[in-house]
Q: What sequence folds into this?
């Protein structure tokens, strides 16, 4: 269906879950909302964003993905610090979840819905902004700067060794990284570090 819809609905679900966490009254509610938000983010939006970038860039893909991933890390770095500032001002952890959820919904829904298209070919363009020569020009030649890459169907990709090796590596990384990110602040607070300093540690870690 393309990254446009995955990012739009994924952000609605993730932002909605964050707002809902602010209304948490029981442990079961926390597990439900946090689990849904985390699964949608990890399994949806974190895959859809680089897919959109990869579809629009071939020769410049590494640079484009680097910029996108830097923006992602910036968000991870600033979010806990922002939430902690809100908590310090309001005196309520619920406000931190409200703010994070509202910000996610405010900046993460309309941009992908209005701006993202699945592939440049869908709107008559080529990857990397390369110009296609006019067919009416007898002296025109194919653009050599366009790197043509093979197209894989999902079924074809699932029969390659590379897909499963990459999937295993990403799974392992995401598992360990998530374990650190999810428990880092709680652990530091349990060790006697203030919540504000714990949030700063997460910011430094993300950076």
A:
């Amino acid at each position: 269906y393309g990254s446009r819809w995955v990012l739009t609905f994924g952000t609605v679900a993730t932002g909605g879950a964050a707002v809902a966490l602010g209304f948490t009254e029981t442990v079961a509610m926390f597990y439900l909302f946090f689990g849904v938000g985390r699964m949608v983010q990890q399994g949806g939006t974190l895959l859809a964003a680089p897919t959109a970038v990869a579809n629009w860039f071939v020769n410049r893909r590494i640079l484009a993905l680097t910029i996108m991933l830097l923006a992602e890390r910036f968000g991870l770095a600033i979010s806990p610090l922002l939430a902690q500032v809100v908590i310090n001002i309001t005196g309520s952890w619920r406000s931190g979840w409200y703010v994070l959820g509202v910000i996610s919904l405010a900046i993460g829904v309309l941009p992908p819905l209005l701006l993202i298209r699945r592939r440049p070919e869908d709107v008559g363009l080529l990857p990397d902004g390369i110009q296609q020569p006019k067919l009416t020009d007898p002296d025109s030649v194919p653009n050599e700067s366009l790197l043509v890459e093979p197209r894989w169907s999902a079924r074809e990709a699932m029969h390659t060794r590379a897909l499963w090796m990459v999937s295993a590596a990403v799974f392992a990384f995401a598992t360990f990284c998530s374990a650190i990110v999810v428990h880092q602040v709680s652990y530091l607070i349990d060790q006697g570090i203030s919540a504000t300093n714990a949030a700063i540690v997460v910011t430094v870690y993300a950076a």
User: Anything to note?
Assistant: The radius of gyration is 21 Å.
